Amino acid sequence: MTETAAILADTTDIEVAFRLALAPSDPPSILEWAITSFRLSSKDSAAPGLVTLDPWQREVLATLDDPTITQVVVAASSQTGKTLLGLILANYAARHRPGPAIYVHENDFSAEAFAKDRIQPSLDANSADILIGQRGKGGQTTTRKEFTTGGTLSIVGAQTPANLSGRPAATLIATEVRGFPRSAGKDGDPLSLGVARGKSFPHFKAFVESSPGLLGRCRLTEQAEAGDVRRWHLPCPHCNHSAPVDFDPAPGSHSVSYSPKHPEKAAIACCECGTLWTPRERLDAIRAGSFKATRTATDPTIASFHYSELESLRSDLPDIVKRYLAARKRPERMQAFVNTVLGLPFDPDQSVLDISDEALSTKAQHYDAAVMVPDDVFVITAGVDTQPNRLELQLVGHGPGNRRWSLDVATIHGDPNGPTVWQKLETLLLETRFRHPLGGELSIKAAAIDSGGQNTQAVYAWCSSQLARGRPFYAIKGVAGERPITLRSKTSRLQRDQHHKLVIVGVDTAKNEIFSGIQKDAEEEGSIVFPDKYGQDFFAGITSEKLRITTNKNGSIKREYIKPDKVTRNEPLDTLVYALAAFHLLTPPPDFAAIARSLDMSTPRQSYAEQIAARSARLAALTK
């Protein structure tokens, strides 16, 4: 029975008229009020004025009116409009849900910034008529608001126990939950503290929103999984089969069909009939979609929602694919893509490298640098790894578009603390020549030699003597962590008349490039190509490491490459890293176009028939 209906019961006509004049009207629903009354501020919106809600936002707001639901949890991509829902609830609560409300951000600093940049403009646009006094007067501050309706709004940080443990809340709004600490001091989980503050209010509502974080460490994901995880289902415009959308094919979900060479042609593929949707059909399907629960809630008072850019009217599908391809080139960016674009938690145990040594070997191409280097190779560098009884070496060609080709590998047996192996290395680096299809020959322009292990002083001494002769053969030391691929250290004195510039190599950054490059097609920018003459042990060595991402109890992220298989030799990977480092040490950076012109001019001009005959001979040599 509504409040008005209760007044009409058991009263005379005069009493009815009198009481109706004094009785408050029934408040509108949150959705109804948002559609008819909520306005976007010109201070924080490109389209100020009465709000226009997306279909998915309407369903979430309607759920907030469900009396059986006390918590609404939204795990969604960035820039999909989830924060707007919290601002709507804050203004609605100030006007129609008298009582204390708490708006929780990651920490006190971000809470104050959010209060200035988002909450205050929203209150000015929607609740100025019920705000008491001005800021600094009448109890008003940047992070505390009082209203004539009897309501209050406190904007607090999640990391301070007093912000939550001592405050009652009829309405709780939590934003950027992925950044919440695991514990607010000694009082425990801040989100649980906030929810506990509302138990004394019969109509308590909590709205929790954020993009996810790391799987197993994300408080948002834990809260969402306690609910029914509703996903936006899109009906296929061709067969009307309704399903959610995933980036990669998955059972029961539509997926994204794309080509790395033509991301602008990306389209949604129906999981039932396989038809590709046009951009217009995708938008129409989004508008016709609806949320459907994907699991039974362990807590029936929690309604949880997952929403991604794949299902957003605000996002362009080819642009999403382009961002994925860019993230794939820089594997450390994949977490941001998964969290903020797909709206999913990032698995800290997943490997950036998703290609096996067998699959990598099948991608190898048929060329033999001993006969002729590939057409686009214009610079050659060497990477040398030192072992107690040998030197392992890899020669790598570089070309435009950051493309690279492994040209050859070699082993020089002998004790690195003796002179023989270094004499052989010097001969190899100085005298090796490679024929180029344009004519002329290429020599090795730079080398990077690992100075770690048991041969440090021997490496220092040899590289110092080479640098003294003007030869760019550098001693390097690999260091893990996020750092530039190459960084020259200060000159370190070995002897009174002997100097050497040790180069620090950011091996993790180089491996990021490698593991991205080996997954690309040969024609793609940033690709790394291997010849099919290499044995399987080489490809096993290239894929011998994986990236592990972990977090500590405070949520700090640590990325490190590990070698799960202790038996497989990783010299192929190490020497490739060092050859990339040698290329980065070239000063000035190579001018590939100028090198191509010089090669072309180094050979006398041939007639057309002679060119055809020479090319046929090269092809015949390669196919032997």
Structure described in brief:
With 624 residues, the protein is α/β, with parallel strands linked by helices. It is 33% helix and 23% strand.
Walkthrough of the structure:
The protein has 20 helices and 29 strands. The model is unreliable at 490-499 (pLDDT under 50). Helix 16 packs across helix 18 and helix 17 crosses helix 18 (571-584). Strand 12 and strand 13 form a beta hairpin. The protein is 33% helix and 23% strand. It starts with a helix and ends with a helix. The strands form seven sheets. Strands 3, 4, 5, 6, 7, 8, 9, 10, 14 and 15 form a ten-stranded mixed sheet that branches. It has an eight-stranded mixed sheet with strand order 23-26-22-21-16-17-18-27. The protein is an alpha/beta fold and 624 residues long.
Task: Quickly list its features.
624 residues, 23% strand, 33% helix, 8-stranded mixed beta sheet, alpha/beta
Task: Give me the count of strands.
Answer: 29
Helix content, binned percent: 25-40%
Strand content: 15-25%
Shape field: elongated
Q: Whole-number radius of gyration?
A: 32 Å
Structural class estimated from helices and strands: alpha/beta
Q: Separation of termini?
A: 91 Å
Figure out the total of helices: 20
**Mean pLDDT score:** 87
Low-confidence stretches: 490-499
Question: How would you characterize the largest beta sheet?
Answer: 10 strands, mixed
